[in-house]
Design goal:
metal ion binding, alpha/beta, S-adenosyl-L-methionine, metal-binding, five-stranded parallel sheet, 4 iron, 4 sulfur cluster binding, pyruvate-formate lyase- activating enzyme, aspartic acid methylthiotransferase activity, OB fold (Dihydrolipoamide Acetyltransferase, E2P), Rossmann fold
C-alpha cells in the first residue's frame, strides 16, 4: 500500500480531544479521538455538545474515561489504516470503544480487525452515537449544572470556527468514495447556517471557515429555496449565503469550491472585502483525458480562462488547490501537461497526493496503474515546481503591509496567518519582536520582512 507524505495528507489524526478542567465526583466521562478533515471535526463538536448537555464530562485521558469515541476517516487506505490503529490504541488503553465517522460505514471491515468494539455508526449519525454512549455509560445529569452551552463545544481555538453548510456530494469521481459514505448532497437551510454563524461571531469567533464536500453546490438539492432572515428573504445559494456572512464582521473563508460558472459571482464579494479573497478549489489535474478518467465535473481547458477572469476582478485573490499524480493511466505527457498548466496558473497554495487505491473506488479497476517509483518521482517534480511558485509569490510580499490574525503566542513569538492562509493547511506569518501584548484572535497590521517557500516573517 502506498503512503502519502504525512504532512500533506487530508486525514491526519489530531491529538486526543482536551478534557474539561474539572469534573464533578462520579460524573461519567467520555474520551474522544477525532481523526480526519474539518467536516469530521464539526461532527465531533456536535457529539460532544450533546454529551456535555446530558451531563457527561470530557476526558483527555484513556484511563480516566468511562468510554472512548473514535471518529474515523476513510478517505484513503492509509487513512483507514490510521483509523484502525487509533481504534486499537483506544481498545488497549480503555477497552470500551464506540466507533463513528466515515470508516463507520464499513462495519464489517472494522469488526474484522477489532471485534470487541461496542458499537459502529456511520458519519453524522449523532443519535446512534448517543444511544451507544448511553448503553455503555448511562448519563447522570445535574439539572443545576449541565446546561447546553450557547455556542456548543468547540474543538478549534476560540477565534475561528468551521461552519458546515451541507453534507454529502452528488459527484461520482472514480477515485472517491465519499458519496458512498456520506450520501448525496444535503444542504442546511440558509437561515439555520446564518443563525449558527451569528452565534459564533457573538461568542467571539473572528474567522468563519465555510466547509462542505461541494461548497459551490450549496442549495442545489433544495432548489435554492428562500427563507426569511432579518428583514429580507435569502436564498439557500452560496452567493446569497456568502453575502450575508460577509455582513457579520468576521473573516469568511470558503473551502472546497468547484469552479462552476456561478463561482464568478463570488469574486466581486471578495474584491469588496465582504469575503476573504481566497478560494480553495480541488482541481485534481489539468489534462482533459486524466480528468475524464477521474470523472471530474470540471474541464481544465476552461479553468485558466476562469482564473484569469477572477484575477481581473480581484487581483489579490489567493487560489489554493490539490492535485493527484500517478492516477491510473497517467502518461509522462499528461503529467507534463499538468506541470505546464501549473506554470501558467501560478496557484498560490498547492497540495499534491500520490494516487492510492481505496476499497470500493471505481478507479481501482482502471488499467495501467502507475508504478510507485514513478509516482514518487512525479510527486517530487510537481512539488519542486509548486514550491518555486510559492517562494516567488511570498518573496513579492516582502516590504508590503498586510493584515494578519494571531493564532497563538508564547515566549518565542506570535504565530499568525494572513488572509491567504487557512489554519493547519497553509503557511504562517511569524512575529518574533514586540509581540508581548498580542493575544490569539487579534487582527493586526504587519510589515513583511522575510519570506521562505511557505511562510512569512514580519513586524508590527
Amino acid at each position: 500500500m502506498s503512503q502519502n507524505p504525512p504532512d500533506l495528507r487530508p486525514d491526519l489524526a489530531r491529538a486526543r480531544v482536551e478534557g474539561d478542567a474539572a469534573a464533578r465526583p462520579d460524573q461519567p466521562k467520555i474520551g474522544m479521538v477525532s481523526l480526519g478533515c474539518p467536516k469530521a471535526l464539526v461532527d465531533s463538536e456536535r457529539i460532544l455538545t450533546r454529551l456535555r448537555a446530558e451531563g457527561y464530562a470530557i476526558s483527555p485521558d484513556y484511563g480516566d474515561a468511562d468510554s472512548v469515541i473514535v471518529n474515523t476517516c476513510g478517505f484513503l487506505d492509509s487513512a483507514k489504516a490510521e483509523s484502525l490503529e487509533a481504534i486499537g490504541e483506544a481498545l488497549k488503553e480503555n477497552g470500551k470503544v464506540i466507533v463513528t465517522g466515515c470508516l463507520g460505514a464499513e462495519e464489517d471491515y472494522i469488526r474484522g480487525a477489532h471485534p470487541s468494539v461496542l458499537a459502529v455508526t456511520g458519519p453524522h449519525q449523532y443519535e446512534q452515537v448517543l444511544d451507544a454512549v448511553h448503553a455503555a455509560v448511562p448519563p447522570a445529569p445535574d439539572p443545576f449544572v449541565d446546561l447546553l452551552p450557547a455556542s456548543g463545544v468547540s474543538l478549534t481555538p476560540r477565534h475561528y470556527s468551521y461552519l458546515k453548510i451541507s453534507e454529502g456530494c452528488n459527484h461520482k469521481c472514480k477515485f472517491c468514495i465519499i458519496p458512498d459514505m456520506r450520501g448525496k448532497l444535503q444542504s442546511r437551510p440558509v437561515h439555520a447556517v446564518l443563525r449558527e454563524a451569528e452565534k459564533l461571531v457573538d461568542a467571539g469567533v473572528k474567522e468563519l471557515l465555510v466547509i462542505s464536500q461541494d461548497t459551490s453546490a450549496y442549495g442545489l438539492d433544495r432548489r435554492y429555496d428562500t427563507h426569511p432572515w432579518k428583514d429580507r428573504e435569502v436564498r439557500s445559494h452560496i452567493t446569497d449565503l456568502s453575502r450575508e456572512l460577509g455582513q457579520l464582521g468576521a473573516w469568511v473563508r470558503l473551502h472546497y469550491v468547484y469552479p462552476y460558472p456561478h463561482v464568478r459571482e463570488l469574486i466581486p464579494l471578495m474584491a469588496d472585502g465582504g469575503v476573504l479573497p481566497y478560494l480553495d478549489i480541488p482541481f485534481q489535474h489539468a489534462h482533459p483525458d486524466v480528468l475524464k478518467r477521474m470523472a471530474r465535473p470540471a474541464a481544465a481547458s476552461r479553468t485558466l480562462d476562469e482564473i484569469a477572469a477572477w484575477r481581473a476582478v480581484c487581483p489579490d485573490i489567493t487560489l489554493r488547490s490539490t492535485f493527484i499524480v500517478g492516477y491510473p493511466g497517467e502518461t509522462e505527457a499528461e503529467f507534463q501537461t499538468l506541470l505546464d498548466w501549473l506554470d501558467e496558473a501560478q496557484l498560490d497554495r498547492v497540495g499534491c497526493f500520490q494516487y492510492e487505491n481505496v476499497a470500493g473506488a471505481r478507479s481501482n479497476a482502471l488499467p495501467d496503474h502507475v508504478a510507485p517509483d514513478v509516482k514518487q518521482d512525479r510527486w517530487e517534480r510537481f512539488m519542486e515546481k509548486a514550491q518555486a511558485i510559492s517562494a516567488a509569490k511570498l518573496d513579492a510580499k516582502v516590504g508590503s503591509r498586510i493584515e494578519v490574525i494571531v493564532d497563538s503566542v508564547d515566549g518565542d513569538g506570535a504565530v499568525c496567518r494572513t488572509k491567504a492562509d487557512a489554519p493547519e493547511i497553509d503557511g504562517n506569518l511569524f512575529i518574533d519582536e514586540g509581540f508581548e501584548a498580542l493575544t490569539p484572535g487579534d487582527i493586526v497590521s504587519v510589515t513583511v520582512d522575510e519570506a521562505s517557500e511557505y511562510d512569512l516573517w514580519g513586524t508590527l
